[in-house]
Amino acid sequence: MKNLAEPLASKIRPKSLDEFIGQDHLVGVGKPLRLAIKNKLIFSYLLWGSPGTGKTTIARIYADAIDADFHELSAVSAGKDDIRQIASEKNQSTKPIVIFLDEIHRFNKAQQDYLLPFVESGKITLIGATTENPSFEIIPPLLSRCRVFVLKEHTPEDIGKIIDRAIKSLKTKMDNDVRDWLSEFANGDARQAIGLIESTFNLYKSLTIDNFKNAIQNKFLRFDKKGEEHYNIISAFIKSMRASNPDAAIYYLARMVDSGEDPLFIARRMVIFASEDIGLAQPTALVVANAVFAACQQIGYPECAINLAHGVAYLAGCAKNRSAYDALRSAQADVSQHGNLPIPLNLRNAPTKLMKSLGYGKDYEQYTDADLLPEKLKGKKYLK
């Protein structure tokens, strides 16, 4: 008998890539994950992306395709014993064992070290899901044994298609203007869109913008602190520092501290902010932010909250200059557009006679006002 209490997200979850919406750069025709699933390739990998982008769904589709024993764990609650117990099943099963470890960034170094030999030996195939940059959160030996696939936030068009699937499952209707509103409100998070549709429908039986807004305001329907609300608060925190408003920034810091947010998550955002938003206006901001990060590593809660507050007050009060950040993004756009442009001959390394004879390093001057960019980019100014 079908479970009538089954969550809407579970009811409409795609069972194959043909039903999957979005992430065409990974699961589109000829793309890496589609080919891996089609050819039943067995390897460990990490899925890095925002909430509601399809990480869990992709993992399940992959495990079904390779006919694996699939184990779904959350790094928030799982530990070494869970890994040991699952790995021991390898002796009793001829199927590949796949562990999907959600929020893998919450595994500490010791837990990741413990996981490593099972991945290395092939006893388990690991699929890790994370909203955090694996370069910072995953130990290098484990990271080197996993491919990393980056998932993009869903476009409003993708969210619209997911909404259509949800309302079809509920056997209800939604006006186009409501659909457009919800597609934008979801901010690329399919899970948020589906959850809000389900909650609103259960409360009001009618999917209107007013009903959605009322449902959002209902305190019993607030998203958990590790979901949408988590990202709202960190966004408000950063924007308050950007606006040089220390009172608001410290308030949102207190919200995160009170909810038990990882202090290193907060401190890491502060390090990024110090270069992205303050930059050349006050270079010592990066020194302070790194000192706060180190203090959080060494001290931990509850005392490191004081270090965070100290750093927030300082960063919020700094002058702001995004020129270095903007210069990087502008240069990256040219790299993406033009590819590997030829390096000017006078800037090239000339370790051999042949290279010297070809003009490598010729007329090089250590200190010069000459334009050193590739020919196609001569005159371009990135740092303004």
From TrEMBL:
Pfam annotation, one family: MgsA_C
Gene Ontology biological process: DNA synthesis involved in DNA repair; DNA-templated DNA replication
InterPro entries xrefs: AAA+_ATPase (IPR003593), AAA_assoc_2 (IPR032423), AAA_ATPase_RarA/MGS1/WRNIP1 (IPR051314), ATPase_AAA_core (IPR003959), DNA_pol3_clamp-load_cplx_C (IPR008921), MgsA_C (IPR021886), P-loop_NTPase (IPR027417)
GO MF terms held by the record: ATP binding; ATP hydrolysis activity; DNA binding; enzyme activator activity; single-stranded DNA helicase activity
Domain of life assignment: Bacteria
Keyword Nucleotide-binding: yes
Domain AAA+ ATPase: 41-154
Keyword annotations: ATP-binding, DNA replication, Nucleotide-binding
Nucleotide-binding as UniProt keyword: yes
Function: DNA-dependent ATPase that plays important roles in cellular responses to stalled DNA replication processes.
Family the UniProt entry places it in: Belongs to the AAA ATPase family. RarA/MGS1/WRNIP1 subfamily.
The protein's name: AAA ATPase central domain protein
The species this protein was found in: Candidatus Collierbacteria bacterium GW2011_GWB2_45_17
